[in-house]
Amino acid sequence: MANSASGMAVHDDCKARFLELKAKRVYRFIVFRIEEKLQQVTVEKLGQPDESYDDFTASLPPDECRYAVFDFDFVTDENCQKSKIFFISWAPDTSKTRSKMLYASSKDRFRRELDGIQVELQATDPSEMSIDIVKGRAI
Protein backbone atom coordinates (compact mmCIF):
# COMPACT_ATOMS: atom_id res chain seq x y z
CA MET A 1 0.00 0.00 0.00
CA ALA A 2 1.61 3.27 -1.08
CA ASN A 3 1.87 6.37 1.02
CA SER A 4 -0.27 9.08 -0.54
CA ALA A 5 2.18 11.84 0.44
CA SER A 6 5.29 10.27 -1.05
CA GLY A 7 4.08 7.20 -2.95
CA MET A 8 6.26 4.91 -0.80
CA ALA A 9 5.17 1.36 -0.06
CA VAL A 10 6.50 -0.59 2.91
CA HIS A 11 7.98 -3.98 2.02
CA ASP A 12 6.46 -6.84 4.06
CA ASP A 13 9.97 -7.82 5.16
CA CYS A 14 10.23 -4.55 7.13
CA LYS A 15 7.23 -5.45 9.30
CA ALA A 16 8.28 -9.10 9.65
CA ARG A 17 11.82 -8.23 10.82
CA PHE A 18 10.46 -5.58 13.20
CA LEU A 19 8.10 -8.13 14.77
CA GLU A 20 11.06 -10.49 15.25
CA LEU A 21 13.01 -7.71 16.97
CA LYS A 22 10.07 -6.77 19.17
CA ALA A 23 8.73 -10.20 20.12
CA LYS A 24 11.72 -12.53 19.89
CA ARG A 25 14.64 -10.10 20.28
CA VAL A 26 16.34 -11.77 17.32
CA TYR A 27 18.00 -8.45 16.34
CA ARG A 28 19.48 -5.53 18.27
CA PHE A 29 18.67 -3.07 15.48
CA ILE A 30 17.34 -2.75 11.94
CA VAL A 31 18.34 -0.13 9.39
CA PHE A 32 15.80 0.66 6.67
CA ARG A 33 16.29 2.53 3.40
CA ILE A 34 13.98 3.91 0.77
CA GLU A 35 14.53 2.24 -2.60
CA GLU A 36 13.52 5.17 -4.74
CA LYS A 37 13.34 3.22 -8.01
CA LEU A 38 11.06 0.61 -6.38
CA GLN A 39 9.10 3.26 -4.47
CA GLN A 40 9.30 1.30 -1.22
CA VAL A 41 11.03 1.04 2.14
CA THR A 42 13.25 -2.05 2.50
CA VAL A 43 15.52 -3.62 5.14
CA GLU A 44 19.15 -2.64 4.63
CA LYS A 45 20.88 -4.15 7.69
CA LEU A 46 19.99 -6.41 10.60
CA GLY A 47 22.07 -6.00 13.76
CA GLN A 48 22.74 -9.17 15.73
CA PRO A 49 21.73 -9.34 19.43
CA ASP A 50 25.36 -9.02 20.60
CA GLU A 51 26.02 -5.85 18.60
CA SER A 52 26.40 -2.57 20.48
CA TYR A 53 24.99 0.92 20.07
CA ASP A 54 28.33 1.90 18.49
CA ASP A 55 27.91 -0.89 15.92
CA PHE A 56 24.46 0.50 15.19
CA THR A 57 25.58 4.12 14.72
CA ALA A 58 28.49 2.94 12.55
CA SER A 59 26.00 1.24 10.21
CA LEU A 60 24.27 4.55 9.39
CA PRO A 61 25.82 6.19 6.31
CA PRO A 62 27.40 9.60 7.02
CA ASP A 63 25.79 11.31 4.03
CA GLU A 64 22.55 9.42 3.31
CA CYS A 65 19.18 9.33 5.08
CA ARG A 66 17.87 6.19 6.78
CA TYR A 67 15.22 4.99 9.20
CA ALA A 68 16.23 2.66 11.99
CA VAL A 69 14.91 0.89 15.06
CA PHE A 70 17.11 0.05 18.03
CA ASP A 71 16.23 -2.19 20.98
CA PHE A 72 17.83 -0.35 23.89
CA ASP A 73 18.45 -2.21 27.17
CA PHE A 74 18.97 -0.18 30.33
CA VAL A 75 18.71 -0.31 34.11
CA THR A 76 16.35 2.11 35.89
CA ASP A 77 17.17 4.07 39.06
CA GLU A 78 15.22 1.35 40.92
CA ASN A 79 17.68 -1.22 39.49
CA CYS A 80 15.12 -2.77 37.12
CA GLN A 81 16.28 -4.17 33.78
CA LYS A 82 14.18 -2.64 30.99
CA SER A 83 14.15 -2.29 27.24
CA LYS A 84 12.69 0.33 24.91
CA ILE A 85 12.40 0.30 21.16
CA PHE A 86 13.62 3.51 19.55
CA PHE A 87 12.64 4.71 16.08
CA ILE A 88 15.39 6.89 14.66
CA SER A 89 15.01 9.09 11.62
CA TRP A 90 18.55 9.76 10.36
CA ALA A 91 18.86 12.71 7.97
CA PRO A 92 22.43 14.07 8.01
CA ASP A 93 22.97 17.66 6.88
CA THR A 94 25.29 16.38 4.15
CA SER A 95 22.59 14.23 2.49
CA LYS A 96 20.82 15.42 -0.65
CA THR A 97 17.85 17.75 -0.19
CA ARG A 98 15.63 15.50 -2.31
CA SER A 99 16.47 12.52 -0.09
CA LYS A 100 15.75 14.49 3.11
CA MET A 101 12.37 15.55 1.72
CA LEU A 102 11.51 12.01 0.65
CA TYR A 103 12.38 10.54 4.05
CA ALA A 104 10.55 13.33 5.88
CA SER A 105 7.36 12.91 3.84
CA SER A 106 7.35 9.11 4.27
CA LYS A 107 8.34 8.92 7.94
CA ASP A 108 4.97 9.10 9.71
CA ARG A 109 3.35 6.46 7.54
CA PHE A 110 6.32 4.13 7.86
CA ARG A 111 6.54 4.61 11.62
CA ARG A 112 2.84 3.74 11.99
CA GLU A 113 3.52 0.41 10.26
CA LEU A 114 5.88 -0.53 13.11
CA ASP A 115 3.55 -1.09 16.04
CA GLY A 116 5.42 -1.03 19.33
CA ILE A 117 7.79 1.92 18.94
CA GLN A 118 8.22 3.56 22.36
CA VAL A 119 10.57 6.48 21.67
CA GLU A 120 11.21 8.51 18.53
CA LEU A 121 14.41 10.41 17.77
CA GLN A 122 15.26 12.60 14.82
CA ALA A 123 18.96 13.17 14.13
CA THR A 124 20.91 15.19 11.58
CA ASP A 125 24.25 14.70 13.30
CA PRO A 126 25.71 11.80 15.37
CA SER A 127 25.76 14.02 18.48
CA GLU A 128 21.93 14.24 18.33
CA MET A 129 21.67 10.50 18.94
CA SER A 130 24.56 9.95 21.33
CA ILE A 131 24.19 7.17 23.88
CA ASP A 132 23.65 9.79 26.61
CA ILE A 133 20.67 11.25 24.72
CA VAL A 134 19.25 7.76 24.15
CA LYS A 135 19.63 6.90 27.86
CA GLY A 136 17.97 10.19 28.83
CA ARG A 137 15.00 9.55 26.53
CA ALA A 138 14.64 5.93 27.69
CA ILE A 139 14.26 6.65 31.41
UniProtKB/TrEMBL annotation:
Keyword Transmembrane helix: no
Annotated SMART domains: ADF (SM00102)
PROSITE patterns xref list: ADF_H
Domain of life: Eukaryota
InterPro entries to which the protein is assigned, alphabetical: ADF-H, ADF-H/Gelsolin-like_dom_sf, ADF/Cofilin
Coiled-coil segments on the chain, per record: none
Gene Ontology MF annotations: actin binding
Record keywords, A-Z: Actin-binding
Gene3D superfamilies in UniProt: Severin
Cellular component terms (Gene Ontology): actin cytoskeleton
Record carries keyword Transmembrane: no
Gene Ontology BP terms: actin filament depolymerization
Residue ranges constituting the ADF-H domain according to the UniProt record: 5-139
Recorded family membership: Belongs to the actin-binding proteins ADF family.
Role summary: Actin-depolymerizing protein. Severs actin filaments (F-actin) and binds to actin monomers.
Name of the protein this chain belongs to: Actin-depolymerizing factor-like
